[in-house]
Amino acid sequence: MASRIAVVLVVLGAVAVSWWLLRVLGMPATLSPDSLAAWLQSQGAAGPLLLMLLMLIAVVVGPIPTLPVSATAGLAFGIVPGTAIAATGAAGGALVAFWIARFLGREAICRRFPDNPVLARDGSQRFLTIAILLTRLIPVFSFALISYAAGVTALHTWRFIVATTIGMLPMTLVFAGLGNTFRLSPVLTVVAALAVLAVMVWLPWSFSRHPDSRLARWLHLHQ
């Protein structure tokens, strides 16, 4: 366990150094898309790499919003290249958060919930993949929180990355294309998020009572 904590501390230290480097290079403190885009364009060929690094940090740290960074990508580099750059950085950050949680919490979760159809060692890969995909589609869910939460589940790494990448691409493309002029409806996004969350909580409980239902078998939620 001590070695795992040491690895995580090294990773977090690298993130802190990366943030310091961005500030030394002149990154605006406000993180507004317009000012960030102007700064990135002034960095020449290093601009896309710096944007990826900023997105990675935003995902790992959590409180730093990722959608303004996506808007910045479109403003600085264009819709398609900006989307690719932002998505690559977000996927990298999600993977770092995923593995931090897996290193620190997965074994404890397995011991605490040995028979849970989602959290156990043989938890449903199909259900977890769909859950990650749906939460990535709705930006109101914290990108960082979902990544950390996924790390303590049974979800395979490759499934996590595929679901994350596919799920985040639509909104990343929208924000890269429309920049900071696009606004989400708070009511609709919250309602949609609550609906998805309710379904994901209810399904395992419901199928534990009806393990032989067709949907339970398809989702591999039966024990």
Automatic annotation (TrEMBL):
Subcellular location: Cell membrane
Keyword Cell membrane tagged: yes
Start and end residues of each VTT domain: 64-180
Keyword Repeat included in the entry's annotation: no
Transmembrane regions listed in the UniProt entry: 6-25, 45-64, 84-105, 126-150, 156-175, 187-205
GO CC terms in record: plasma membrane
Domain of life from the UniProt record: Bacteria
Coiled coil residues, start to end: none
Main localization, broad class: membrane
Membrane topology, as annotated: Multi-pass membrane protein
Keywords: Cell membrane, Membrane, Transmembrane, Transmembrane helix
Family, as annotated: Belongs to the TVP38/TMEM64 family.
Name assigned to this protein: TVP38/TMEM64 family membrane protein
Species annotation: Tamilnaduibacter salinus
